[in-house]
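ok new one. same drill as before - structure tokens go in, u give me an amino acid for every spot. 490 of them this time. try not to just spam alanines like last time pls lmao
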């Protein structure tokens, strides 16, 4: 009935059959409480006022229509009126290259790969392991502990394999069929589903609030993965291939790889990153490729569920795009800046024309069009205005219909506008949406506060990043069988 009953609670605590459930609940709460306390501290004092809600709603719903005159530098200033010398181009390139023309190291590779498939022996190994786990459960070991120890289902393993209650048809058919066929507290034989191989322990059944029967069950999932023997065989194949193709061109290597039954990937140039186009995440390949000369062919590299042989086809070191390749880009930007300067000099004349003749008269005198825009809201972004258009939008909502603005400076030039229409929002709609808007604003402020706290913690932290060194060391063979290896990095 939704009312907490202390007697039932105490009886449940004393029920030995519920001990695993309480242990799981206690563990979950123990994990969550520190996070909740931290959230409470970070987010304390966040609130949303009625004025904030109404202002945000108005900004999203009030609309305006305008007509504007744009002092277009391209139309007002011909190319012949501005000039740029070669020396000025080079000076501009040097000034901008750090911000606009820096490039990271890049490479282009030809990659032969041998995916490691699973074998009947791999499947048999998993089934044998599940048979052993099932036998241990039958002998009295706690199924939940066995699931925590062995299950490869990240979602349920930490909960002792518990999947909670589910109705018929909610799970994949293979799982559903076995789970619903079991008597309570019995454990199934191993069976396969699209996710891997399972054993399932059936729990109690009950009816939900609509009378539909539900079943609670736990499971242990093991995935069939290639064995070390499979990888060893592929590495032998790849090693023999690498010896045969050493010194060959990229095209010859690709042709021989296809003839040998390998998959071939020829990448476009890509910047140094653990992610390789056409391959995916493979830091072992990246680390080797960006430390090897052009034309080098790797020894077998194991990454994920495949073995690779890699040829470096092209390497470009980190640096800057050459002046010659960006000269036209720099020239266009510099000419536009000069035109913008000249157009700015016309502001005073344009302002006087707008005052004397109005927007249309000024436009006719200057040979420019008057453009209509809208309706748009305070939160709108008008593509034709370029970046940093807030002064234009703010002016549009600050004027009364019929009023004409003074000059509005944006990065791409100067504007004059007049408001032709203002559409007030419907306050009746606001009342029905008030709480939804309050929650939306609260969520935004909460996320902002959390982000600011994380940023402050990062700024205050003294962290040294050794990931690249660890990943590189992990991919290199140990000097001898007994040599220690770094731990895997997740």
């Amino acid at each position: 009935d939704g009312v907490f009953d202390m007697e039932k609670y105490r009886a449940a605590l004393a029920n030995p059959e519920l001990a695993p459930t309480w242990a799981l609940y206690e563990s979950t709460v123990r994990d969550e409480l520190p996070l909740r306390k931290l959230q409470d501290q970070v987010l304390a004092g966040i609130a949303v006022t009625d004025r904030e809600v109404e202002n945000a709603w108005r900004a999203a719903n009030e609309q305006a229509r305008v007509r504007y005159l744009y002092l277009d530098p391209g139309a007002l200033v011909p190319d012949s009126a501005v000039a740029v010398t070669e020396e000025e181009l080079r000076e501009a390139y040097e000034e901008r290259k750090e911000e606009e023309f820096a490039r990271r190291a890049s490479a282009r590779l030809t990659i032969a790969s041998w995916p490691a498939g699973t074998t009947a022996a791999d499947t048999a190994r998993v089934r044998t392991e599940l048979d052993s786990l099932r036998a241990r459960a039958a002998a009295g070991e706690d199924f939940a502990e066995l699931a925590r120890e062995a299950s490869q289902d990240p979602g349920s393993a930490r909960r002792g394999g518990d999947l909670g209650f589910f109705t018929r048809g909610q799970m994949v058919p293979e799982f559903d069929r076995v789970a619903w066929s079991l008597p309570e507290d019995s454990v199934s034989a191993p069976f396969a589903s699209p996710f891997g191989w399972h054993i399932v322990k059936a729990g109690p059944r009950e009816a939900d609030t609509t009378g539909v029967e539900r079943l609670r069950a736990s499971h242990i999932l093991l995935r069939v993965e290639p064995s070390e023997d499979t990888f060893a065989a592929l590495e032998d194949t790849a090693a023999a291939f690498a010896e045969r193709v050493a010194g060959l061109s990229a095209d010859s290597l690709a042709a021989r790889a296809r003839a040998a039954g390998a998959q071939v990937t020829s990448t476009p140039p890509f910047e140094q990153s653990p992610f390789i186009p056409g391959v995916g995440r493979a830091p072992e390949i990246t680390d080797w490729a960006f430390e090897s000369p052009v034309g080098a062919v790797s020894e077998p590299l194991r990454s994920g569920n495949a073995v690779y042989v890699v040829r470096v086809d092209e390497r470009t070191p980190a640096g800057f795009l050459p002046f010659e390749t960006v000269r036209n880009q720099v020239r266009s930007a510099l000419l536009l800046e000069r035109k913008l300067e000249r157009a700015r000099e016309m502001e005073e004349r344009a302002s006087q024309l707008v005052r004397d003749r109005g927007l249309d008269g000024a436009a006719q005198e200057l040979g420019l069009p008057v453009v209509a825009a809208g309706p748009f809201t305070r939160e709108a972004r008008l593509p034709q205005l370029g970046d940093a258009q807030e002064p234009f939008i703010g002016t549009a909502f600050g004027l009364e219909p019929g009023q004409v603005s003074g000059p509005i400076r944006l990065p791409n030039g100067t504007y004059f506008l007049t408001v032709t229409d203002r559409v007030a929002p419907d306050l009746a709609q606001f009342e029905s949406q008030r709480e939804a808007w309050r929650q939306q604003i609260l969520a935004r402020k909460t996320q902002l506060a959390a982000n600011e706290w994380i940023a402050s913690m990062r700024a205050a932290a003294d962290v040294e990043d050794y990931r690249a060194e660890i990943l590189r060391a992990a991919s290199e063979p140990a000097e001898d069988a007994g040599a220690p290896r770094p731990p895997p990095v997740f």
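The radius of gyration is 34 Å. and btw Residues 351 and 472 are 65 Å apart (CA to CA).
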